[in-house]
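Many introductory courses stop at the sequence. We go one step further.
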Amino acid sequence: MISDILAQLANFIIKIISDSGYFGITFLMALESACIPIPSEVIMPFAGYLVAIKKLSLIWVIIWGAIGNLTGSIIAYWAGAYGGRSFILKYGKYILLKQEELDKAQRFFDKYGNLSIFFSRILPIVRTFISFPAGIAKMSFRKFCFYTFIGSLIWSAILSYIGVFLGENWESIGIYFRRFDWLILILLIVFVVLFLYKKLRKKQR
């Protein structure tokens, strides 16, 4: 079932880019960074394949891919800044999140935000959702945009070059990225479980 969903999603991505070119790349990459799980591991390699067959320009594929990521990230950032923080303050107690956690998140992004935003751009799953907590933590918007764009530019370039290199076999890269996706997902689940366990132990004491 999951494989069928992924296949349909890949077909949707291919159709959008085939029909609308650079706009399709920008649109899809914006969706991915706006917390909608549209895999850039399909978007950019396919765009790279279109470069290989001379239908698109490599430099513009990379640039528009990064612009799309930045656009979607800004949407997620402001959603976190204006809606996410007040939501957590009001309802966070039901999932063991309080003002204390928001303050910790803000201190983290003040200290490590530049690096975390930059490196998250080349990590599957994390890159899709990092902008929302950055907004909640009120990270410097200027720095957020700068490091998001630079990280996205590098990620777009890597995936596009892979697509160019693999040519008509560009889809084969998805197998390796899906394995990495599962690893990141498992690590995130472990982190959440440990966080909840620690909070419950503290509450019992």
